[in-house]
Amino acid sequence: MTRMPPSVGTVVDWAAGVMFRILFAASVLFLVIPIVVSVVLSFDDRQFLGPFPPTQFSLRWYRSFLDNPAYLEGLIVSLKLAVLSTLISTAAGASAAYVLSAGRWPGRDVVEMLFLSPKFVPTVVIGFSILGFASAIQVFDPFTRLIMGHVVITIPFTVRATLASLIGIKRSLMEAAISLGAPPWRAFLDVTLPLARTGIVAGGLMAFVLSFDEVAVSLFLSDPFTQTLPIVLVAEMRANLNLTVAAVSTVFAAVTVLIVFFLDRVVGLDRVIGQGLYRG
Amino acid sequence: MIVSGLEATVQQPRLSAFQWALLAPGAVLLVVLLVAPIALMAVVSFRPFIAGRVGSGAGWTVRNYTELIEPAYAFYFYDTLRIGFIVSAIALLLATPLAWQAARTKRRAMRVSILGLLIGLLFMSLVARLYAIQMTWGSNGPLAFFGTLIGIPARSAGYAAIQVAIGLLHFVVPMAAIILIGTFQNINPKLEEAAASLGAPRWRVALTITLPLAVPGLLSAFMISFAMCISNFVVPLILGRGIVLFTTNLMYVRFSDVANFPSGAAIGIIMFALAGFVVYALAGFVRWLAPAEARP
């Protein structure tokens, strides 16, 4: 058998394949390297910010995190804020999503737009406008203002996630319950709510994470005595470069890994993204 | 809002009292906490600013808007849009191979790893990621040599823009990739197989079959990245070193440093309009590229 010289097509194919692999590796590395660097640096034993990699390791930055009351106070404010605003926006968003999924009624599109629109309004605009509005209606308590802002930014996520899970639920199940004599609220509680649970939980999770990490809205609505953890971290990052923030970031990264693992177990990552039309 | 063209089969003329009760709390919250504040902000944006006084003066003026056309301010808008545009373009380039691999690989471990990475990044604190980027790409970091490589040393002022771009990329690439996974998954692989079996080399299949089908998804990913970039606040705040400021940061400075509420409100209204325009244009674009009957 004679060997065929490679055609132009195969050479271009080969080059394109190599390019694709290089680009793929570059983007994975681009996304992963910074996180690895900061995790490694968080165990650095040096007191100053030395060149990478560190030579001696210790847990000093984790101790300094636990010793600094500003971080812990920020953490408590952030957790309280995230839990409360998640509860409010999940309750309001999930029940609205249920009505939005119930067929078409006049004005439905406008209401849907209202519920999803905070996602498209820049967060600074939300923070700034709520600050002006709060002082106009004489609300000066920072925690109340923070709740106001965080509920607005998280609602679209709870609505979206619940809507997505409700689309899969057959209306006939609900109608069957009603035709068997259940009042609508009973059918809602016993049939729809349990079936939409994954969507509601996923939306609540997103709302929690979003609220916990929010900077722009919180910067406008907090005051020097009520600060969230991200605000404390940003202030620390801009003021001095010590590695305590690296320790906090590492804790965040670890929690994220747990969340992803949990999400994969409970919902399945494939379902979060969706299989599309032609897979599987 | 991309409203689906499919009409629901059930036409429900009116909502029941129970449905109203479910809808009302959220609707009231949003009218009070979103619509009313933005309306108030629109009013304030036409009020004159009186130096040394918190709040705004009486009477009406358009000065808060006209002063933004002055070069000193217009530059912030230009810088924001320019960096946002470049970052969104690079984000497509980096997100495409990730999304393609996740959508088309036959190896389950590969798919789950990519999905896990992307979803994990979405869930991981952006503040923590930006700190990690500062540690990695900053003047002391292991990747700082990159600046020297492209002629903008990490210690120079010009590097601030590079750092902001890197931060924004880290923020938008996972989102763009997740959008593109959906796009690629919905392109029928049989079309490519058919073209290949007729003897077309793979690069021609990619250019003539796959790319045209992916255009609406690529455009969505681009526009959403762009909208996310220009409305971002934290990335320039942390990585901009005070040299690169976006309009969002300008708005904050107007409020925190000079307490000029009317000017901040005017910037806010422009940003609100800009964000609305990008989303509206996106929905229009997608509808124009993919007519109703072609959509799944």
Detailed description of the structure:
The complex is a heterodimer of chains A (280) and B (296). Chain A has a single domain, classed as MetI-like (MetI-like fold, Orthogonal Bundle). Chain A is 74% helix and 0% strand. Chain B is mostly helical and 296 residues long. Chain B has a single domain, classed as Orthogonal Bundle (MetI-like fold). In chain B, 71% of the residues lie in helices and 0% in strands. The N terminus of chain B is likely disordered.
Helices and strands, with pairings:
The complex is a heterodimer of chains A (280) and B (296).
Chain A: H1 8-41, H2 60-67, H3 69-100, H4 108-116, H5 123-136, H6 142-167, H7 171-179, H8 184-195, H9 197-213, H10 216-221, H11 229-239, H12 244-266, H13 269-273
Chain B: H1 17-44, H2 63-66, H3 71-104, H4 108-123, H5 126-137, H6 145-149, H7 159-185, H8 189-197, H9 202-230, H10 234-239, H11 247-256, H12 261-289
For CATH, the homologous superfamily of chain B is named as: MetI-like
Structural category of chain A is mainly alpha
Note the total helix count of chain B.
12
Q: End-to-end distance of chain B, in Å? A: 18 Å
> Uncertain segments of chain A of ≥5 residues (pLDDT<50)?
none
Secondary structure category of chain B: mainly alpha
CATH topology of chain A: MetI-like fold
CATH fold description of chain B: MetI-like fold
The low-confidence parts of chain B are 1-10
Level-2 CATH architecture of chain B: Orthogonal Bundle
